[in-house]
Amino acid sequence: MYSLFLPKNFDDSRPIAVLAGRGDYPICVVEKIRALGLQTKLVAFDGDTEKSLIQSFKPEDSLVTQVGQLGKVLRFLKKSGAGYALMAGQIKPKRLFKGLHPDLRAVMLLSKLKERNAETIFGSIAKAIEHVGVSMLDARCFLDDSLAEEGPMSGLKVKLSRDWIDHGIRIAKTVAQADIGQGVVVRKGTVLAVEAFEGTDAMLQRAGTFQASDSLFVKTVKRNQDFRFDIPVFGPRTLVEMVQAGIKYAALEAGNTLILHKAQLLKTAKKEGICIFGYSPL
């Protein structure tokens, strides 16, 4: 069993194309796929995908393109013989307003959307990819052992009131359900910051300006989350932002939040006095 999140009819003879955005997440996915002996292809985005990841692929197994060139991506997927595609890593949020280079296919796709958010945009892209015979995979595939688990994970005791934790989870769920973001920072029943289009790092920086003790960062998903994209990720950069902001607690939805470089990150969190714990999905 390669992953609990793969479809039951998964064909391991077909290549898996990774649509790679920013950061370490795509690198971790590709490394895992390769370690399992599965074929992988790469769709990289100029200015977003790590150059080291691009360089690890043969030119014939990869496509480097600008954000918005949907037609080119679809043609590459068909030509490469990919049976599956997996979205990993963010594209810079500002790309939606500046630096987007939509081709005719992308323009047509965007023109049909009444609302433009992660779910509508990437949902439409996923539909276009599946229309050319490539199945979209759950973004948690192959990283089962990197998911958050219930209870304390960084070796530190949770010294927060259960009521305060429940309040943070409830607010985070409400924000996620409204397609605003996947994270919030709360303190003793007060909302300090809400994640929106600017992303997690900016939210943590804003929350840090209050210099409030016992602040809690909560990461979650919607009740009907489409795990083919927009999956919550907690990585080294997020931990650094928490340290700099003076936020000592992080609650991650178990089974639904990816922790990049999990073992090392949790070890570093303990050293920095950051309590990271998982809570049960509602």
What this model shows, in words?
The chain is α/β, with parallel strands linked by helices and 282 residues long. The protein has 2 domains: 16-136, Rossmann fold (3-Layer(aba) Sandwich); 147-279, Cytidine Deaminase, domain 2 (3-Layer(aba) Sandwich), CATH 3.40.140. Helix content is 33%, strand content 18%. It contains 9 helices and 13 strands. It has a 6-stranded mixed beta sheet, with helices on both faces. It has a 5-stranded parallel beta sheet with strand order 3-2-1-4-5, sandwiched between helices. Strand 1, helix 1 (25-35) and strand 2 (40-45) form a beta-alpha-beta unit. Helix 7 (200-208) runs parallel beside helix 8. The protein is globular. The model has no long low-confidence stretch (mean pLDDT 93).
